């Protein structure tokens, strides 16, 4: 799906008039065009297949280096992402930590970050974003377990309302074997080690998050 830039431009102009501004004044004359360009980037994932990056897998038993079969989880930490909260159309941004227990197939690590990118480029809430990432990985790979931890700052919290500028939201989504808090404790510890401190460390064992859910 392609963002209708012309319609966005028209609506932004109307919005500026609705808040009492003059869209023809010099500082705002190019604003509708700029917002249309930004929205085309922010919402590029609408209608895009998030599983497509995972279509090319590598056999770990019949591949070029079968002796490197992983004995534990594959983890990609610190994947930067940004999205737009669907409630206020304000940005939220943070880091994603992804892990899965591979079966016969593994996937290029860049493909995992692409899944995050596609799903984040839509109107989102963080709780759903983590669940969608976990579902996409679980459905596309023969993984025995999947873990997705998101840690993000929301402008609807930091810039309006309570204006808690230091607040972050942590959500956990887990599938398969990693739905068991004890099974994922080592992975949570590794994420916390990278973070150094903060709410992720508190999630170890209890799997209690600021918002969100854990689904088997």
UniProtKB/TrEMBL annotation:
Residues 10-191 form the GTP cyclohydrolase I domain. Zn(2+) binds at residues 85, 88, 156. Its EC number is 3.5.4.16. It catalyses: GTP + H2O = 7,8-dihydroneopterin 3'-triphosphate + formate + H(+). GO terms for cellular component: cytoplasm. GO terms for biological process: one-carbon metabolic process; tetrahydrobiopterin biosynthetic process; tetrahydrofolate biosynthetic process. One of its GO terms (molecular function) is GTP binding. It comes from the Bacteria. PANTHER family: GTP CYCLOHYDROLASE 1 (PTHR11109:SF7), GTP CYCLOHYDROLASE I (PTHR11109). Belongs to the GTP cyclohydrolase I family. This is GTP cyclohydrolase 1. It comes from Microbacterium hatanonis.
